[in-house]
Amino acid sequence: MTQTLPPQAQISQPGIEAEMDPRPEFEPRFPGVGRLKGKVALITGGDSGIGRAVAVGMAREGADIAILYLNEHEDAAETVRLVQQEGQRAFRMAGDIGQDDFCRMAVEQAVTELGRLDILVNNAAEQHVAEDPLDISPEQLERTFSTNVFGYFHMTRRALPHLPRGGAIVNTTSVTAYKGSPTLIDYAATRGAIVAFTRSLALALVERGIRVNAVAPGPIWTPLIPASFDADRVSEHGSSAPMQRPGQPWEVASCHVFLASADAAYMTGQVVHPNGGTIVNS
């Protein structure tokens, strides 16, 4: 392993982007051309990392943005500012997507504030390192599935009545769904569940004209990394990828923007793999 980042760690999840060194790169590399003009997107985990990059990328393409987040208020406020800087309206709300009541209230308030809902991005996630499978407690297992799987179900169920024909759902999964992880077993299991969820939901919604796809990032520089691993492991993040570096959030968010747009009109049930060159053969 080689050093790719300065050693650093944070004490709790989901992590704070403002404390990272260097800051993740979220800004799109190209001017918008109105691919999402007039649309409204709701993004879970939209305060930072991949979620922030998706919010800014979709705003640049003309969408108004609602972001949901757990408790990272300063990061969320900055993302709202960035969306508004792109000339779009923004709404934010804090809470736990593992709770169905919160998901119901969040969707209702987002629709009230922004007038409609066209795109749902299920992105929020948590992960916890366990060197031994016996260290995964029932409480940790339930918490990881609550956020990473149940949260996606809750948000989808609450959003579906508002999504029109032509709407889109984009789920964030992970390369760990395909290659596994010996120290993130419960997390990898949830990511595999999201692949199956994406494929099944896509088939169920074809007749409604709603497309469902997913993005499976590799090692990306987001707040979840220093909030999950010790400083030494953080310093080597991404070095095992064929490109020998961590990806940046903007390099992933462009996939979400594409899948949400009419450019991907003939794609549903698919997974895009911005993972630095890892071949997953699926």
From TrEMBL:
Gene3D superfamilies assigned to the protein according to its UniProt record, in alphabetical order: NAD(P)-binding Rossmann-like Domain
Signal peptide: none
The entry's keywords: Oxidoreductase
Chain spans, region Disordered: 1-25
Alphabetical list of SUPFAM superfamilies matching this protein: NAD(P)-binding Rossmann-fold domains (SSF51735)
Pfam families: adh_short_C2 (PF13561)
InterPro entries: NAD(P)-bd_dom_sf, SDR_fam
Polar residues bias locations: 1-13
NCBIfam families: PRK06701.1
Family in the record: Belongs to the short-chain dehydrogenases/reductases (SDR) family.
PANTHER family given in the database record: NADPH-DEPENDENT ALDEHYDE REDUCTASE 1, CHLOROPLASTIC, NADPH-DEPENDENT ALDEHYDE REDUCTASE-LIKE PROTEIN, CHLOROPLASTIC-RELATED
Protein name: SDR family oxidoreductase
Taxonomic source organism: Lacibacterium aquatile
